[in-house]
Amino acid sequence: MDFSKLYRPSALNSYQFIAVTGLIMSAAAHLILHFFVHHTVPGFNWLYVCWTGLYIIGSLMNLFGKPNNGHHHHHH
After folding, report:
1. CA 50: distance to chain centroid?
2. Rounded CA separation 10/68 (Å)
3. What pLDDT does 49 receive?
4. 19-46: buried (b, 16+ CB within 10 Å) or exposed (e) per residue?
5. Residue 68 class from Cβ within 10 Å (0-12 exposed, 13-18 middle, 19+ buried)?
6. Which residues contact 33 (CB under 8 A, 6 or more apart)?
7. In this predicted model, what pLDDT tens digit does every residue of 21-65 receive, in sequence order?
């Protein structure tokens, strides 16, 4: 099993990529709200739960999915 599909950017599928981007953007928004606006949004932490869930689903699809499903990028 190729575990580099969990962390190597070129091996991530679109679900994983969206989830990682979402986590980074959510964390950035959280920090901005906390340090500059001094405001917390109720339920904001659920964003992290959703992004993590999406990442896990994407990871399972990446690890156990068919390797030749048409949208693989080959870097030479």
Report:
1. 10
2. 16
3. 95
4. bbebbeebeeebeeeeeeeeeeeeeeee
5. exposed
6. 39, 40, 41, 44
7. 999 999 999 999 988 888 878 888 999 999 999 999 999 999 998
Paired tokens of 71 = 């949208």
Question: Do 54 and 15 touch, CB atoms closer than 8 A?
Answer: yes
What is the reported pTM?
Answer: 0.75
The single-letter code of the amino acid at 31 is L
Residue pair 55/19 in contact by the 8 Å Cβ criterion: yes
Residue 23 corresponds to which tokens in the numbers above? 């986590």
Instruction: Measure the CA dihedral 52/8/64/68, to 10°.
Output: 130
Instruction: Give the residue extent of every domain in the chain.
Output: 14-64
